[in-house]
Amino acid sequence: MSLTNSSNEEQIRILVLNEGEDKSEELYRLKKGWNLQIKISSCLSWRKVRLFTNSCLNEEDQFERTIYRELKWIYPSNGKYDDSDRYTNLSCFKSGSFHYYFTIDGTTSKDNLNGQGYFHVEPYLIWPDGSSEVLEQECIACQTVLSKSLGPLSEWTSRLEVTHHSGYNMIHFTPVQILNCISNSSYSVSDHHKLNPLFQGTYEELKLLIDNMAKQWRILSITDLVYNHAANDCELLKQHPEAAYNL
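-> structure tokens emitted (247 positions)
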């Protein structure tokens, strides 16, 4: 992938497709607002390449992972029989990881793909203090905190103040839901919908707390939704035992 800059600072990344190339274990990083220009290599120039992606082609589109749209080629050459310089342009409207694949036999099916890969449009983090300032991913300084060790919500601010004075701008909270009563492991979740009673509070109070941290301390928060980590007494497994399978 290469980079070009125009006079108005428009960011363009170029991705070149190669015949039979599987890039599914690689990830191209892009930023929201950038343009991804996809071209074909010389080995594909004579092929009838059809390109598909599950990325949103318009800002108002809703993302559906299983829905693919075909990208239309742009033909800059004036030559009647020369389309080897054709390309397509994809605007990065929404954050997320998106898949693309292409065929060379004129079909649309992923079963007949000749090449594939992924590109990732980074999340767009904005401070909620009215400044509209963006927190760049390269500038994130994140500290992991064991939520179960923080005690009641009323004590969280005093316990987390050291994080603020240490210069961190993000806290990763381990799961805040009810944990297994025997192991008390941070990732042995008994109920994915209920807040840990150790916190002696509600989700609304937790939201107020982390919102205040973001506005007053400029510390953003993330946490895990670990639906594949479940305690043996988990409500999810009781209601859906078919979700677990052991050889």
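The mean pLDDT is 90.
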